[in-house]
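Supplementary Text 2. Reproducibility record for the structural model of the 162-residue chain.

All settings were left at their defaults, and a single model was retained for analysis rather than an ensemble. We include the record here because the model underlies the residue-level annotations in Supplementary Table 4.
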Amino acid sequence: MRNNTTDEAIKLRRARAIELRVQGRKNMRQIAKELGVSVATICNDIRAVVNEETEGVADLIKTTREIECQKLDDWQAKVLTSLDNAKDVDDEAKLYGLLVRIAERRAKLLGLDAPIKQEIDATIGSAPRTAASARAMMNALFATSAEQSLGASSDEDDELPN
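Retained model, structure tokens:
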């Protein structure tokens, strides 16, 4: 069993780790190095603090989300400004790709994405016997997956080549 001194040191380390993480200027490896412990210890410390049901921690988590959303807003504004000044189609394509990634990160951060249910028949004896039947099975699986994730049927371009 730990003594009070050790427990107090752990509480102080956890508080400092959370503080550094909330500031958003350091990653887990940098925090671990600064505090003189392993990355696993920092991850466990942060997880332990997050799992505690205290009002202060809930406020820190909310603040962290707000900081991360603000970063995404700033990046999005910069990308949109760059998009206005894009010189060619290739630049525009790259910038639209960044916008999609920013939107995906925001959705993940805020918990907006619901999991997609996919069913795969993997019973014994269902393996295709020819390359053509394997291709047909893969095309059917791809079409089902695309319809679920995009809400539309797949195009001929999405099929596997013969």
